[in-house]
Amino acid sequence: MPIIAKVIVDTPAMTVDRPFDYLIPEQWQDVILPGMRVAVPFGPRQLLGYVVAVADVTALTDTKKLKEIVDIFDVRPVLTPEMLALGEWMAQDSLNFRISIFQTMLPNLMRGSYEKYFVLKNWDNTAAVKLFEGSETLDWKAVKDSEFVTALQRWIQAGDIETVYRVSSKETKKTKRALKNCLTETELIASLESLGNQAKAQRKCLAMLLELEATELWVDEAKARGISDAVLRSVAEKGWVTIFSKEIDRDPYANHHFEKSEPLDLTTDQETVFQRIFEVQREKIAKTFLLHGVTGSGKTEVYLQTIAEALKLGKQAIMLVPEIALTPQMVERFKSRFGKKVAVLHSALSAGERLDEWQKIEREEADIVVGARSAIFAPLTNIGLIIIDEEHEATYKQEDYPRYHAREVALWRAQHHQCPVVLGSATPNVESFARATKGVYELLELPERVNNRPLPTVEIVDLKDELRQGNTSSFSTVLLDKIKDRQQKGEQTVLMLNRRGFASFVMCRDCGFVPECPNCSITLTYHKLRHQLKCHYCGHQAPMPPQCPSCQSEHIRQYGTGTQKIEEELLELLPDIRIIRMDVDTTSRKGAHEKLLTAFGNGEADILLGTQMIAKGLDFPNITLVGVLNADTALNVPDFRASERTFQLLTQVSGRAGRHQLLGEVVIQTFNPDHYSIQLAQYQNYIAFYNQEMGLRKLTGYPPYYLTALIQVTSTDERKGEETIANITGFLKRELNEQTILLGPTPAPIAKIKNRYRYQCLIKYKVEPNLRDVLRRVLETYQKEIRNGLTVSIDFEPYTMM
DNA sequence: AGCACGCCGACT
DNA sequence: GTCGGCGTGCTC
């Protein structure tokens, strides 16, 4: 009989990132299992914790220290043994805290909610009774900032009051009012006859109940049939029906109807790819495929059919898509093919909806999970296939704690379940493609668009020439002519404004002064709506100065371009053009994204104007022109992946044009027409891009030729930060191989955020078997410095180095 | 992360 | 003398 539970407690700190032993009270001795959530006393507090193991003995020498588990929150484990093992691996591999990992694996509502309150014990203490306002308890929050804190401390010492810490789960169920018929058919008829003539509404109600086959009915529905609340109350009073709250699942797609779709015929290429994946599915081995298919080559149909095979084999499947591509269009495709078997997880769900979807998976009511990054932790127990669409997308890497890459988690789970992983992309991550050429992954290709649709023709426009010809607008002559042409033909245009590394800022024309955030080393962004300057990192706001604060000149104005400004500019050039604008402003409301896309799909606009969010997943037959207004802003970012990102973005957005009957055209406007990432995007020539990029990576010593880890130090004290990063770099130099390259120490590209100075050092290495141990030692050393406003963080294979 | 414990300066 | 500041160590 296990009497000891090993528990990871809810405190994300290095010193407690290990299991603590607790006694299992007798009544729970065969109830508590690994993976369950419990409440445990931890120091003076009570915390939520995850049982990671049960045992007969404790390794603790002083067994008097053992405390008992005080509460349990689950009847069955919420974390499977697989998830516990995965969590352990993630903790070791990425130096994450175990508690943070477990919490990301589960819906937010399963986290603990904490209460602290006082209980009055001595009612003779009149001052206390007064403060408690005659009640037995007093909430800590109500007094924590008041002048009574010292008095309370005194009373605790005297034993007049006690502090109570309580942890509970936040889970709630959504309920809906329902009515239950308490009468038999004969009783119903009798009651009907007993009613007087004036009780027409009650008669109608009973008549309805008679017709009803079920004994229960939603109150909503009764109302819809013309039975009012008042009538329900009177029949309930007579005991004929009871009204109660019934738990329901929140189904975010409850009001959608999905047309059933059938598998499409596959092209020869699709068939070859499908068969190869299917072969491995039957063999039940862990193998990773890289599916390189040009835009419009029908990757999604292959996904759908391999998933169908997984189901036929009695298995389940996970399909990850970038958050931004988790559009209603995408969900529609899955729901219409697989119906109720699909669970969808994305950031637009409310906490309750997310919990319900999770539970639907846990109860094995869903066999297919479609979702963004964290859906890789879906509690499926019999996975037969994992697909990551647009595998090159940066959103698969979580950049804050716990740091993880969904691709790596997918590979781990595939190993556990012995099933294939399919990484799909038109523009694979350079590292992934390198692995495919080396045979670590198996390369599968879809080189042609379905129905032999040609790729769109791409024209590159040099904005320097436009300027020379005196065109200072955001639209080149070529692009504007083509837009006009489409408008006349009734075809549609997608315009993308690339916002990466780019925002509208303010500058003084006379002295060049640019307003910066006082807390962060970043230029302030101009917001037209409020006529304000805003910092995107700390939220600092300032009014737009009427004069230059530096030279008093009035020639201070906004530079750079936002979608709003583009919209105005275009309306000035083409007054009768209909534009739908998609950016953070117009899509922040729930469902707005879907609404705008539907409107565009219905032909309610000539132009869809947006930021990167429109580059993916759009599939409308009438789009024949794609314009990229500024292709190169992403090139100016200090990041070794800048070219790769630019190439990927341009290729993706170009792929939106001419996907169906009509031919597509693309216009790319740039100041760097000769840059290889732009040149090669013109022909969607991934292989040429890959080769060129690999040459550069080799020369500069970046992935995949080197592995990387980024150490970042932040400090409120500039000197201390500088000192610390220097010490760490020195330490690393001593501990690591001679061949390992250390870039730094240097200030981070954004040298200050929220008044914290930032420094970094990039480790580039080939073989470092002890790297994790060495870095763990670094973290341990500076762990106590957190108190002095210093943080040290480590990111393996970073995606952004800002 | 919190919280207690403990060691120093400035007050009744 | 003691109240309360915050540096340090511990939590099964």
UniProtKB/TrEMBL annotation:
- Keywords for the protein's UniProt record, in alphabetical order: ATP-binding, DNA replication, DNA-binding, Helicase, Hydrolase, Isomerase, Metal-binding, Nucleotide-binding, Primosome, Zinc
Tell me the leader sequence span: none
Where is Zn(2+) 1 annotated to bind? 508, 511, 548, 551
Q: How is the cofactor bound?
A: Binds 2 zinc ions per subunit.
Helicase C-terminal domain segment(s): 543-700
Free-text function comment from the UniProt entry:
Initiates the restart of stalled replication forks, which reloads the replicative helicase on sites other than the origin of replication. Recognizes and binds to abandoned replication forks and remodels them to uncover a helicase loading site. Promotes assembly of the primosome at these replication forks.
This protein's assembly is summarised as: Component of the replication restart primosome.
Q: What is this protein called?
A: Replication restart protein PriA
Species of the source: Brochothrix thermosphacta (Microbacterium thermosphactum)
Q: What is the lineage of its organism?
A: Bacteria, Bacillati, Bacillota, Bacilli, Bacillales
The gene is priA
